[in-house]
Write a structure and sequence with these properties.
41% helix, 18% strand, 9 strands, five-stranded parallel beta sheet, 11 helices, elongated
Length: 263
């Protein structure tokens, strides 16, 4: 049986593919064989999806546009359908999109959301799961974190219901969403200030609640620490807590729960 690389060289010799296409196919084979693409500054994990069901996600903060584009391109070349990039500012996103367009013979879909600071390279997962994930946030100031959670959950293949500005200062706004909360497989409760939303939601639903403290609040909120401690001390059963402003982590965990085999 011929080795796959022989087929690539034969196609190149016959003119069926270009040298750039041949190089990309060889790089894909190497990445698949060793489990990562060694780029010197990074080693993108090309077997993450096979181990965990979800491919590698790129944390954009602290990386250059060149590095992000190179990592994303290598993951897509290795067979990952879509790459999520988190904490990416608008200027860097525009540069990443330009670089990706110049690196590939095939134009990769690229979408950026300024509120959540998320970018998607390639295609998100098809929608599935056991039901909707509800993302509830206390106030409009929590939207960046709530949208990071909502868009991440959608990228991972979940139906998402957004219920925003439902904080406990006007609890009737939350109660108006009671039917949606009862249908949820998981609720992500996003709140700053005193972080009370998670406890209230936890007392209303039978599904897991993932609480996300945000850094929204005045001085005594200590950049979200007050909300974090309140959520950790919730008297409602079934509430778990992620790190401050970690909408991504909450959505990832919610997606895992939502995709567990149903009984």
């Amino acid at each position: 049986m011929a080795h796959p690389i022989d087929s690539i060289f034969a196609a190149l010799e016959q003119g069926a593919i270009s040298p750039a296409e041949a190089q990309a196919q060889v790089e894909q084979l190497l990445a698949q064989a060793q489990g990562f693409a060694d780029q010197g500054f990074a080693r993108p994990d090309t077997q993450r999806a096979a181990r965990q069901g979800v491919g590698e996600v790129v944390f954009g903060e602290g990386k250059t546009a060149d590095q992000i584009a190179s990592i994303a391109q290598s993951l897509v070349a290795a067979g990952q359908p879509g790459v999520l990039v988190t904490r990416l500012d608008a200027a860097k996103a525009a540069e990443v999109e330009r670089l990706l367009a110049g690196q590939s013979n095939v134009t990769l879909p690229f979408a950026y959301d300024a509120t959540s600071r998320l970018a998607v390279v390639g295609e998100p997962a098809p929608q599935g799961g056991n039901g909707p994930i509800v993302v509830a946030c206390a106030g409009t100031s929590d939207l960046p974190v709530a949208e990071e959670a909502a868009l991440t959950a959608e990228f991972l293949g979940n139906e998402v219901l957004r219920r925003y500005d439902v904080g406990v200062a006007g609890i009737h706004r939350l109660m108006a969403c009671a039917d949606d909360l009862q249908r949820a497989q998981v609720v992500i409760a996003v709140a700053g200030m005193e972080g009370a939303l998670a406890s209230v939601v936890g007392g209303l639903v039978a599904c897991p609640v993932i609480a996300v403290p945000t850094s929204v609040g005045y001085g005594a909120s200590f950049g979200g620490i007050a909300a974090l401690l309140a959520m950790l001390n919730s008297c409602a059963s079934g509430v778990s807590v992620v790190n401050i402003d970690n909408g991504f982590g909450a959505a990832y965990q919610a997606s895992l729960i939502n995709h567990l085999p149903s009984a």
